[in-house]
Amino acid sequence: MTEIEAIQKQILRAKEIRWIKQHNFKQEYKSTIISFKFNIPSWPKNSLEIREAFQKSKFSYCSYMKKNHKEISLLEQNETILGPEAFFLAKDGPVKVKKSSIDFEENFTIGRLLDIDVLGPNSDSHIERETKRKCYLCNNIAIYCMRENTHSQIELRLFFDTLLKKFVEE
Ligand SMILES: [Zn+2]
Q: Does residue 131 carry a pLDDT above 90?
């Protein structure tokens, strides 16, 4: 196994663990569970700046949800090979929570860098967005650019780092 393959394996495993965690929380609390994290292109997935931006974004997300009468409470926060992640318990149904989360992503300074997944108490998969997510860099649909490799990893990462730096410093 090459080094890259080993890292890819670790990434897959970490994603699997995240998924299992969210499901376990769902079963334990029988309510909507939110998984809150960044969508970080390339490597590394953590740094002082990422950590700081994460705390700041998490705080803004909580205030936003509170302002919109969506009661959420933090269940757990971790740092994995994928970077920082937080799980929240929500009282409202998954569709409402997803809608507010998308509104937040679309209006928040670095909303495009966030990845907020919502899992309903009676579901085995995340609530899908009604409109597909836009790419970081262009106005195409993100999944299209990913499939077509429209942008290089270096280009995506540069965009991520620049936006994050500006956000942390503001
Ligand atoms: Zn693009």
A: no
